[in-house]
Amino acid sequence: MVVPALEVDALRKSFGRRQAVDGMTFDIRAGELFGFVGSNGAGKTTTMRIILGVLTPDAGEVRWLGRPVDFAARRQFGYMPEERGLYPRMKVGEHLRYLGELHGLPPAAARAAAGRWIERLELSSCASEEVQNLSLGNQQRVQLAAALVHGPKALVLDEPFSGLDPVAVDVMRDVLAERAADRVTVMFSSHQLSLVERVCDRVGIVGGGRLIACGTVKELSEDADRRLLVDAPAAGEDWAAGLAGVEVVSREGTRTRLRLAKGADDQRVLHAALATGPVSAFVPEHPSLTELYRDLVARTRPPEEDAGETAGAGATAGATAGAGPSAGNRTEGGER
Ligand SMILES: Nc1ncnc2c1ncn2[C@@H]1O[C@H](COP(=O)(O)OP(=O)(O)OP(=O)(O)O)[C@@H](O)[C@H]1O
């Protein structure tokens, strides 16, 4: 059995009448890159703040290596907060050394670690600059260095990729992959789903303050509706209409994209297509994480949802009841 390194167990947190986190449960293994995605206001930042001890939960627990997280455990965590937390007037090198020492490194080790991360994150040319004079992207690299300088065993990063140029994205992605290869537990939130799909081992999709799906992209797509691309050159517009469990997603020329609900028979679709004449393509398609995400959010959105202010928080609140502590993998109600 693989023992999780970080466990988030049934967290709840409200701000006044707003339930920001509502039974959040998942775990992450050592060496795993875990993507934390969800609509605006879904509860990602609040969860990360609770993990780091910046906020206290109303209920639930965070465990590190099987024990409730305490101060000593949190010293092994590296955090990149959403609001970014650097002292603008400190110089980059000085700042990183200071943070290293603050996390308990002896001065020489803090200096060496700061130098290493400055080099690795390609910050050498601005090591003597004040943080406030750096571009936003470079400030973000410094922020990552700040999360890494003390050699943490877990990284919790709130939208580390937002606002980065493509080269900086590559650097950030490579560093996170290297850390994971070094058995560090890495969790990050992002709205860049194609990047999350490329980078992460597993993805947790958050809605209404809890996890509505979790797993590898492959696992998530196995739980989703199947998709088919059918090219039937002689078929009329509505050749697939009326097939049980089949929805026409799009039609371009002679090609029809279909979504098949669970239990729908793809052989009936093939028969229906062949009944129109030749079939030059009949191809199962694998949905991207973006498509899976859209489907999931649409599937779990309550009909009375107010699409206003809290679209993310409201999007799934009504549909996730039952996703308790065991909803740790795949979509709610799906196989584990
Ligand atoms: N300090 C606070 N006081 C009041 N409400 C808060 C506070 N922090 C968060 N909230 C509310 O809790 C809900 C969850 O917010 P949170 O920041 O965790 O979402 P998120 O998933 O990180 O969103 P985003 O993707 O936009 O960053 C939102 O409705 C938000 O307005």
From TrEMBL:
One of its GO terms (molecular function) is ATP hydrolysis activity. It comes from the Bacteria. Residues 6-233 form the ABC transporter domain. The keyword Secreted does not apply. This is ABC transporter ATP-binding protein. Keywords: ATP-binding, Nucleotide-binding, Transport. Pfam families: ABC_tran (PF00005), DrrA1-3_C (PF13732). Belongs to the ABC transporter superfamily. Residues 299-336 are annotated as: Disordered. It comes from Streptomyces pacificus. PANTHER family: ABC TRANSPORTER, ATP-BINDING PROTEIN. InterPro entries: AAA+_ATPase (IPR003593), ABC_transporter-like_ATP-bd (IPR003439), ABC_transporter-like_CS (IPR017871), DrrA1/2-like_C (IPR025302), P-loop_NTPase (IPR027417). Residues 309-328 have a biased composition (Low complexity).
